[in-house]
Specification:
The complex is a heterodimer of chains A (130) and B (663). With 130 residues, chain A is α/β, with parallel strands linked by helices. Helices cover 42% and strands 19% of the residues of chain A. Chain B folds into 5 domains: 124 residues, HPT domain (Four Helix Bundle (Hemerythrin (Met), subunit A), Up-down Bundle); 100 residues, Alpha-Beta Plaits (2-Layer Sandwich), CATH 3.30.70; 58 residues; 175 residues, Histidine kinase-like ATPase, C-terminal domain (Heat Shock Protein 90, 2-Layer Sandwich); 142 residues, CheA-289, Domain 4 (OB fold (Dihydrolipoamide Acetyltransferase, E2P), Beta Barrel), CATH 2.40.50. The chains are: A alpha/beta (130), B alpha+beta (663). Chains A and B meet through helix 1, helix 2 and helix 5 of A and helix 1, helix 2, helix 8 and strand 2 of B.
């Protein structure tokens, strides 16, 4: 596993629930040298992504106006974001959702509820292979 | 793998967020119910509800609270079908939804109180699984706005079509995020809420394009909004320019209906509202009380100066002015504590609904509360009494449909709640039902004495343990009766309760409660077998009086015993409170309360401490016209008035208390 030492990784956590955002950040703290930005909606996520560079996005599906799938599609349409790792974290854990999410271009899919070390392992994996 | 985080740490956040979600879900369901009554659909509200339930399910899953997951999941499934049916959630769906959301809220409370979380009721889950949402998605709207083709969901198209059909003004606004907007704190989230405040926001969609002066970050957000606001207002809300506010043309709408808004048609923006924690208003009130006390001292000093022959006309005028300003300030704080009675009574409609059995017993709730307002603290205490009266009315007073029809009454009973402000800062609340009325003779037989008037009747039914029915019923139960209502209204709030009833025609309970009350934390104690209370905030210390430091000194006739005791190596003057208040006092003082006056400690000897409580004090109408040393009266629950003492003020009389001649 290769995480570049000395370079702060910048992660964007997107969820309309504040507790959920906080929980995800807490689970990912052990990554060490990371900083988190938060977005409470798909629209905010798209805005953040246009204004700053991120190494990874943790994305919820269930959001007003612009849902997670639309965010993934929007991200993948842009050449500079085509390789950005996106981990979808969702309560819709069924196979149909998984297929739709991965077809839209997500890099990983983690059903809720998840254990803290599960999300940590997934994010480590995605960051290492990026 | 590094240190493991414990998700249980987030339980506080979970509770707060779940409370919000259940509250907004309830509001959404009530909105849908009203829309159903008018034969309208609320597709957007259904989607919001769906999201709320989905979030609740996800959060409860993370916290491992399975019963909430089950309930949320079951109703979420209903909402998904409702969304697919074009936002159609029928009466049954709304009813079950309200029960489910209440069930979730109760379980969140259980988590908050650290109680075991009850299982999800199987019956409810089955009922939810059986909800049949019929109806198909509304036919695609006949027209769509230029530029939005293919970007709107069916529900959003319907929303847009309705706006076009109603000749409403519709615009596309553009917001271009950039480092500059971001550094000013303007984001799509702030723009979205600013625009939504000006009208009905149908859709926000991102559009990516090559970076340019118009789109510095290569990104634009387009907002589709129905609004009567001016182009300038809309542009400002979107952090854009008026030139980029585009009127939306419906492609199948006659051009005549499309007019640019005239500048004089600026819609007023609703008054802004802030929510304040009640505790902060209490703090303000405490600060005000302190101010009032120091004003008293000022007045006394002015009087002393005047007595010494000093010309105090200027000072006195300033004092009077300050008095008026204080009263103004007090009125302002009291106003800030007021809540709308209509909001307070909102839970009652839920209760009425849950107790109504379609086809068996139906009740219509009518509220006529106009713009009445009530102190939040009064409202919180009053609500349980109202809930009880409403339950009683539905459970006991209003007859089942069969009986009502036999009696020639309308099928559905009517429960009417009226409010009006009475004289002298009081609110009168009447709860009127058109049910069977209370049979005075029957009650008299049960009570074993004849009942000649309604006052006696009320007295009898408000006797603890008295029940008008032999069997306990599902809703009212036995034992929890009118005595509780009377205690809340009369003892806790210092109000009045009245009854008017006619057999066969109905019953009216009239509650008269003060618009405001003050609640403070007090110590209660006994002195000469009489209970008193003092505000906790004024007491610096309570200590035991033993033989080593017992009150000493002469208790000579006509004299108050003055004694000093040792406290932390320093002498402190101690005054037997009973003697000071001129009540017969045995020398049994066991405790001393220490207060500080002008920086100097002063102890009051009392017989024994009773406890610490939160009590309601009825404010004396004019705080500037009260008896020094007595701040008010309260009720410790025994129905007798208990005096609230201001020991600091009482202590002020001590300096010249040799003049006091105890009887």
């Amino acid at each position: 596993m290769q995480i570049r030492a000395g370079v702060t990784q910048r992660l964007l956590i997107v969820d309309d629930s504040k507790v959920m955002r906080d929980m995800v950040a807490a689970c990912l703290r052990p990554l060490g040298d990371v900083s988190f930005d938060f977005a409470a909606s798909g629209l905010e996520a798209i805005e953040r992504l246009a204004l700053a560079n991120y190494q990874l996005v943790v994305l919820d599906l269930n959001m007003p106006d612009v849902g997670g799938i639309e965010v993934i599609e929007f991200i993948r349409q842009q050449s500079k974001l085509s390789k950005l790792p996106i981990l979808v974290v969702t309560t819709r854990g069924d196979e149909t959702s998984r297929t739709r999410v991965l077809e839209a271009g997500a890099s990983g899919f983690l059903p809720k509820p998840f254990a803290p070390d599960q999300i940590l392992a997934d994010v480590r994996g995605l960051l290492a292979s990026a | 793998m590094g240190d493991q985080v414990d998700l249980k740490e987030f339980v506080g956040g979970f509770i707060a967020e779940s409370d919000q979600l259940t509250a907004s879900a309830t509001a959404g369901l009530l909105e849908i119910e009203q829309a159903n009554a008018r034969n309208e659909l609320r597709p957007k509200t259904v989607r919001d509800l769906f999201r709320a339930l989905h979030t609740l399910k996800g959060l409860a899953g993370m916290m491992g609270i399975e019963p909430i997951v089950e309930l949320a999941h079951a109703f979420e499934t209903v909402l998904r079908s409702a969304d697919q049916a074009g936002g159609r959630l029928g009466a049954r769906g709304v009813e079950l939804g309200l029960i489910t959301v209440r069930g979730i809220a109760e379980r969140v409370r259980a988590v908050a109180d650290d109680r075991p979380v009850p299982r999800a009721p199987d019956g409810l889950l089955d009922e939810l699984a059986r909800v049949d949402i019929t109806g198909t998605s509304a036919a695609p709207a006949p027209y769509v706005a230029h530029g939005w083709d293919g970007r709107l969901a069916p529900g959003e198209r319907t929303q847009l079509a309705a706006a076009l059909a109603a000749n409403k003004k519709i615009y596309t606004l553009t917001f271009a995020p950039s480092d500059a907007t971001s550094s000013k704190g303007v984001t799509i989230a702030t723009v979205r809420s600013a625009v939504a405040a000006l009208g009905e926001l149908i859709k926000v969609a991102p559009r990516s394009q090559p970076a340019s002066a118009d789109a510095p970050a290569g990104l634009l957000f387009e907002l589709l909004v129905v609004s009567d606001a001016s182009v300038e207002q809309l542009a400002e809300a979107a952090s854009s320019t008026p030139g980029r506010v585009m009127p939306v043309v419906g492609e199948a709408v006659a051009p005549a209906s499309l007019e640019l808004p005239a500048d004089d048609e600026i819609a007023p923006i609703g008054r802004s509202v802030v929510r304040v924690d009640l505790g902060r208003l209490d703090e303000l009130q405490d600060a005000l009380s302190a101010l009032v006390v120091s004003r008293f001292r000022l007045e006394r000093q002015v009087a002393a100066l005047a007595a010494a022959g000093v010309d105090v006309r200027g000072l006195r005028e300033t004092c009077e002015q300050q008095g008026r300003q204080l009263r103004e300030l007090r009125r302002g704080i009291l106003r800030a504590r007021m809540v709308r009675v209509a909001d307070v009574l909102e839970p009652l409609s839920l209760i009425v609904r849950s107790l109504t059995k379609p086809g068996v017993k139906e009740v219509r709730l009518e509220l006529d509360v106009r713009d009445s307002e009530l102190d939040k603290a009064v409202a919180d205490r009053l609500l349980p009494a109202l809930v009880h009266l409403v339950r009683n009315a539905i459970d006991h007073a209003i007859e089942p449909i069969v009986d009502r029809e036999k009696a020639g009454k309308p099928r559905a009973g009517t429960l009417r709640i009226e409010c009006r402000e009475g004289a002298g800062n009081e609110l009168e609340i009447a709860i009127r039902d058109d049910g069977r009325g209370i049979d005075r003779d029957a009650i008299g037989r049960r009570a074993g004495k004849p009942i000649l008037d309604t006052a006696t009747l009320l007295d009898v039914i408000a006797t603890p343990g008295f029940s008008t029915r032999d069997s306990a019923t599902e809703t009212s139960g036995r034992g929890f009766g009118m005595d509780i209502v009377r205690r809340i209204v009369v003892s806790d709030l210092g109000g009045e309760l009245a009854l008017d009833t006619a057999v066969g025609r109905g019953t009216t309970f009239t509650l008269t409660v003060p618009l405001t009350i003050a609640i403070i934390d007090v110590f209660s104690f006994e002195c000469a077998q009489q209970a008193f209370v003092v505000p906790v905030a004024t007491v610096e210390e309570i200590f035991e009086l033993g033989d080593h430091n017992a009150v000493t000194g002469p208790s000579a006739k006509g004299r108050l015993p003055i004694a000093l005791i040792e406290r932390r190596g320093k002498p402190v003057q101690i005054i037997p409170l009973g003697t000071l208040l001129r009540i017969p006092c045995e020398v049994t003082a066991k405790k001393a309360l220490v207060v500080r006056r002008n920086g100097e400690a002063l102890a009051f000897a009392v017989d024994r401490m009773l406890g610490r409580h939160e009590v309601v004090v009825r404010p004396i109408d004019d705080v500037l016209a009260r008896v020094p040393g007595v701040a008010g009266a309260t009720d410790l629950g025994d129905g007798r008035p208990t005096l609230l003492l201001d020991l600091v003020e009482l202590g002020a009389g001590v300096s010249n208390w040799r003049e006091v001649q105890p009887s």
